[in-house]
Amino acid sequence: MISQDLLSILCCPESKADLVLDGNTLVSVDKNTRRRYKIEDDIPIMLIEESEKLSIEEWTSIMKKYGKNTD
């Protein structure tokens, strides 16, 4: 599990936006990029080319789940 200290310094490499820990992934709070990064063996894989771009519906659902702004 990623520590809160590490989560507080990580950001999306594409947009520099904050990230939300969602299960075993990190999700960018940036509505335009909507990137999801895998966590493998407690190590975040922060490579844009290995990330997934979420649909607007899935991204919105995740942001609402964690009380983040979706505007």
Task: Give a quick set of tags describing it.
71 residues; alpha+beta; N-terminal domain of TfIIb; 2 helices
Task: Outline the structure in words.
This protein is an alpha+beta fold. The protein has one domain: N-terminal domain of TfIIb. It has 2 helices and 5 strands, in the order H-E-E-E-E-E-H. Strands 1, 2, 3, 4 and 5 form a 5-stranded antiparallel beta sheet that branches.
Structural class by helix and strand composition: alpha+beta
Strand content: 25-35%
Number of strands: 5
Total helical elements? 2
SSE pattern, N- to C-terminal: HEEEEEH
Shape: globular
The largest sheet, given as strand count, sense and whether it forms a barrel, is: 5 strands, antiparallel
Distance between the termini: 29 Å
- Uncertain spans, ≥5 residues at pLDDT below 50? none
Please name the CATH topology: N-terminal domain of TfIIb
* Gross CATH architecture: Single Sheet
Report the top-level CATH class.
Mainly Beta
**Helix content estimate:** 10-25%
Taking all Cα atoms into account, the compactness measure Rg is: 11 Å
Number of structural domains: 1
Short account of what is shown:
This protein is α+β, with helices and mostly antiparallel strands. The chain has a single domain, classed as N-terminal domain of TfIIb. It has helices spanning 4-9, 56-65, and strands spanning 19-22, 25-28, 35-40, 43-44, 52-53.
List the helices and strands and how they pair.
Layout: H1 4-9, E1 19-22, E2 25-28, E3 35-40, E4 43-44, E5 52-53, H2 56-65
